[in-house]
Amino acid sequence: MTELKPVNEATAAKADAPKKMVLPDAQSVTFVKHWTDRLFSFRVTRPASLRFRSGEFVMIGLMGDPDPKTGKQKPLLRAYSIASPSWDEELEFYSIKVQDGPLTSKLQHIQVGDEVILRPKPVGTLVHDALLPGKRIWFFATGTGFAPFASLLREPQTYEDYDEVIITHTCREAGELEYGAALIESLKTDELLNELIGEGFWKKIKYYPTTTREESPKMGRITDLMRSGEAFADLGVAPLNPETDRAMICGNLAFNLELKQMLEDYGLEEGANSDPKHYVVEKAFLD
């Protein structure tokens, strides 16, 4: 016989309260930092079963708005490069804010303790496996295209495979360079990485930030600076050569296509996971 319990105001309110939705493939947000009014980074817990190669991306997101007719919600997912290295206990992401963007208009408001959807199936072309052995690696980025290189700059294999690591980052405004600049500066005092990779590993890095709109120490698009020879002179290196140089590209579509053609003109050939060559492009990223 079932005991009948009296219904008071508290239990009635509890019964009427909306149930918290359980997100599929949910991970908890552990850190959020807003770098500018257009850019932010965040970290989430890492699924115990997730294995990935530094430079790969996963699909992350939130639930979309309820359907006006059915009230049902569907996951709203986008491809995001993992900015943390493959050995990290958490996953870091670097994102743009689009005020009317279906996902980022919501994602930019996440706080520590919130949950995001993370589909644990990493893929991508910006991995060491897609390149032939070389002496120097170039990372070419615009905007939040810096994210996969944030991973690769903290990956031991990068420094095992190459004598020199050149990272170029082109943004419109100086503040948009802060995430990358802060990360590179932090490598110098990162005790774990200096122990893991080797004391002073960061001395192999040559960082070349440029802006296209706001005044900064170096103005101009990296492609223009390469064509004029200014970039090579500033860095103290020879132009790209397929015998020694390897490259990865992650930026907006126009940048990717322009730089891809430039690398081909230097004699470099595009590689893939199944066919390693001289350079690779992240096709899933659009800044």
UniProtKB/TrEMBL annotation:
It catalyses: 2 reduced [2Fe-2S]-[ferredoxin] + NADP(+) + H(+) = 2 oxidized [2Fe-2S]-[ferredoxin] + NADPH. Keywords: FAD, Flavoprotein, NADP, Oxidoreductase. One of its GO terms (biological process) is heme catabolic process. SUPFAM superfamilies: Ferredoxin reductase-like, C-terminal NADP-linked domain (SSF52343), Riboflavin synthase domain-like (SSF63380). Residues 22-129 form the FAD-binding FR-type domain. One of its GO terms (molecular function) is ferredoxin-NADP+ reductase activity. It comes from the Bacteria. Its cofactor is FAD. The keyword Iron does not apply. Its EC number is 1.18.1.2. InterPro entries: FAD-bd_FR_type, FNR_bac, FNR_nucleotide-bd, FNR_type-1, Riboflavin_synthase-like_b-brl. PROSITE patterns: FAD_FR. Belongs to the ferredoxin--NADP reductase type 1 family. This is ferredoxin--NADP(+) reductase. It comes from Alloyangia pacifica.
